[in-house]
Design a protein that fits this description.
heterodimer, A: mainly alpha, MetI-like fold, B: alpha/beta, Rossmann fold, globular, disordered C terminus, phosphonate transport (chain B), ABC_transpr_PhnC (chain B)
Chain lengths: ~260, ~260
C-alpha cells in the first residue's frame, strides 16, 4: 500500500530560527541608522548642490588638458613600476610558501602569516606610510603599489602553484633533478601563464589605485584632483576624471584581452 | 648472454614499508635483480607493486631495510649523491607525467637535467649534442615529426612514447615502469612494450615493469615476480611459469590444485 502522506508534496517545515534571524537583521539596521545618524534625507537635502557640481564637471575645461598629461603619465609609470616590483617579489615569495615545493610546514606557516599581515593593509594606508618614510613624491606611490601588488599576486599565484599536476614533479625527481631544476622544468611551465595573467590583473587595479594616491602626496594625478577640488574648480576636476576614465577603460580592455589570449 | 655476465643491479634487503604507522606496503622483501633482466611484477591493485617500484628510486622512503643500486645504497644517500643515483634509474609512469604545456623537445631534454649544473638548465643551455640526441631519441620512438609540438597535442600513446624518449635521454642503467600501459588501448600498449623491449635489448637497460595484463606479462617478461599483500609469493622464469601461478596471484590462491 502506498503511504498517502507521500503522494502529495510535503509542506516545507516552518523554521522559527529563520524568523529570529530576520528580526535580528531588521533591528540591526534600525540601530545602525540611529547610531550613525544616517538618514536618506541628507542625500536629498543637498541634491541641488550635487546636480550643480555635476553640471560643472560635465563641461570640462579642456585648456587644462595639457597640464594634466605629464602627471597622467607619471601615474601610469608608477603603476607599471609598482606592478613589476611587486610581482617579482610575489613570484619568489609564492615559490617559498607553496606546500608542494617547500615541505617544511613551519617555514611556509611563518611566511604565510607574514603575507596575511601585509595583505590586510589597504593601499591608501600603504601610501600614507611610505609618504612618511620616503617623503612626498612618486617614490612613495611606487613603493605603496609594489607592496599592494605583492599582496594581490602572491595569494593568487601560490594557490595556482598548489593546484598543478604533481606528475611532472615526480618525473623530474625520478630523473635526478634538484629543487631549482624541478621548479624550472616541472612547475613554472604549468603556472607561468597564470603569473602573467595575475600581474596584468594587478596592473589594472594599480592604474585605478594610483590615480587617488596623489591625494595623500604619493605622486601622480591625484595631486591635481585634490587641488582642483579644494578650490571648487569643478570644470578642471571634470577634465581629470574624464581623462582617468578613458585611460582606465583602455588599459582594462587591453589587459583583459591579453589575459584571455594567454589562457588559451 | 652468458651466465658469467650475471651481476646484481638492484638488491633489496629486508625492505619494509609501513604507511602512516598502520598500513603495510611491503613486508620484509628480499629481492635481487640482475643486470640486463626484463622483469615483470604482477599482482592485484594495492598489493604493493607501486610501493616496490617507488622504493627503488626513493620516490617513497622505506621504513626498514636497505636497497642497493649497482652496489650503492640509495636508502642512505642524501642530496647530490641521491640525485646521482636517481640519474641511473629511469621511470615510466601510468599517467606519462609530461609537462603538458611544454614542447615535446623540452620534455625529452628534461631527462638530461641531472647531467648539467643547475644554472645551465635554468637558462636552457643544453649542448647542441644533447639536442641532437633528443631528436635521435624521438626518432627511435617514431615521433620525430612532433619535436616542436606541445605535449598536450599528442595522444596518450604518443605521450607515453615521449616519456620513453625522455628515459632514453636520461640514459639510465635501470628502468622502472609503473603500469606503463594502464591508460592505453591494446595496440598502443603493445607498441609501448615493444619500445621498452628495445631499451632492454638494444641499450642493455634493466627493466622492471608493473603490469596488470597477464597477456603482456607473458609476452615480454623474462622473469616474473608475483606480489600479494606486500609479500613476494612467486619469483621465476617466465618460460617455466605455469598458468596456475597467475590464477593464484590474482585469485588469492583460493583454487585447490
Amino acid at each position: 500500500m502506498i503511504d498517502d502522506s507521500l503522494t502529495q508534496l510535503p509542506k516545507k517545515r516552518f523554521k522559527i530560527i529563520n524568523l529570529i534571524w530576520l528580526i535580528v537583521l531588521i533591528a540591526g539596521l534600525f540601530i545602525s541608522i540611529n547610531v550613525t545618524n544616517t538618514h536618506i534625507s541628507v542625500l536629498f537635502e543637498n541634491f541641488s548642490q550635487f546636480s550643480d557640481i555635476f553640471v560643472q564637471m560635465a563641461n570640462p575645461d579642456w585648456s587644462y588638458f595639457p597640464t594634466v598629461i605629464p602627471l597622467l603619465l607619471e601615474t601610469i609609470k608608477m603603476a607599471v613600476l609598482g606592478t613589476i616590483i611587486g610581482s617579482a617579489l610575489a613570484f619568489v615569495y609564492s615559490l617559498l610558501i607553496a606546500r608542494n615545493i617547500i615541505k617544511n610546514k613551519l617555514v611556509t606557516g611563518v611566511l604565510r602569516f607574514i603575507m596575511n599581515i601585509i595583505r590586510t593593509i589597504p593601499d591608501l594606508l600603504l601610501g600614507a606610510i611610505f609618504v612618511a618614510i620616503v617623503g612626498i613624491g612618486p617614490v612613495a606611490g611606487i613603493l605603496a603599489l609594489s607592496v599592494f601588488t605583492f599582496g594581490v599576486v602572491v595569494k593568487l599565484f601560490y594557490e595556482a602553484i598548489e593546484t598543478i599536476d604533481p606528475g611532472p614533479i615526480e618525473a623530474l625527481t625520478a630523473v635526478g633533478a634538484n629543487k631549482l631544476q624541478i621548479i624550472c622544468f616541472a612547475i613554472l611551465p604549468q603556472v607561468m601563464t597564470y603569473f602573467i595573467s595575475y600581474s596584468l590583473y594587478a596592473f589594472e587595479i594599480n592604474v585605478r589605485a594610483s590615480t587617488v594616491l596623489g591625494y595623500i602626496g604619493a605622486g601622480g594625478i591625484g595631486l591635481y584632483l585634490q587641488q582642483t577640488l579644494q578650490v571648487f574648480d569643478y570644470a578642471k576636476t571634470g577634465t581629470i576624471i574624464l581623462v582617468i576614465i578613458v585611460v582606465v577603460v583602455l588599459i582594462d580592455y587591453i589587459s583583459s584581452k591579453s589575459r584571455e589570449a594567454l589562457m588559451k | 648472454m652468458t651466465d658469467s655476465a650475471i651481476e646484481p643491479m638492484i638488491e633489496l634487503r629486508n625492505v619494509k614499508k609501513v604507511y602512516d604507522k598502520k598500513v603495510v606496503g611491503l613486508k620484509k622483501v628480499n629481492l635481487t635483480i640482475n643486470k640486463g633482466e626484463f622483469v615483470v611484477v604482477v599482482g592485484l591493485s594495492g598489493a604493493g607493486k607501486s610501493t616496490l617500484l617507488r622504493s627503488i628510486n626513493r620516490l617513497i622512503d622505506v621504513t626498514e631495510g636497505d636497497i642497493l643500486i649497482d652496489g650503492k645504497s640509495i636508502t642512505k644517500a642524501r642530496g647530490k649523491k641521491l640525485r646521482l643515483l636517481r640519474r641511473n634509474i629511469g621511470m615510466i609512469f601510468q599517467n606519462f607525467n609530461l609537462v603538458k604545456r611544454s614542447s615535446v623537445l623540452r620534455n625529452v631534454l628534461a631527462g638530461r637535467v641531472a647531467y648539467y649544473p643547475t644554472w645551465k638548465t635554468i637558462f636552457n643551455l643544453f649542448t647542441k649534442e644533447d639536442k641532437e640526441r633528443a631528436y635521435e631519441a624521438l626518432k627511435q620512438v617514431d615521433l620525430a615529426d612532433k619535436v616542436y609540438a606541445r605535449a598536450d597535442e599528442l595522444s596518450g600513446g604518443q605521450q607515453q612514447r615521449v616519456a620513453i624518449a625522455r628515459v632514453l635521454m636520461q640514459n639510465p642503467k635501470v628502468i622502472l615502469a609503473d603500469e606503463p600501459t594502464a591508460s592505453l588501448d591494446p595496440q598502443t600498449s603493445l607498441k609501448v612494450m615493444e619500445d621498452l623491449k628495445m631499451l632492454n635489448e638494444k641499450h642493455g637497460m634493466t627493466v622492471i615493469a608493473n603490469l596488470h595484463s597477464v597477456e603482456l606479462a607473458r609476452k615480454f617478461g623474462q622473469r616474473v615476480i608475483g606480489i600479494r599483500a606486500g609479500e613476494i609469493i612467486y619469483d621465476g622464469k617466465m618460460s617455466a611459469t605455469p598458468e596456475s601461478v597467475f590464477t593464484k596471484i590474482y585469485n588469492g590462491g583460493e583454487e585447490d590444485d
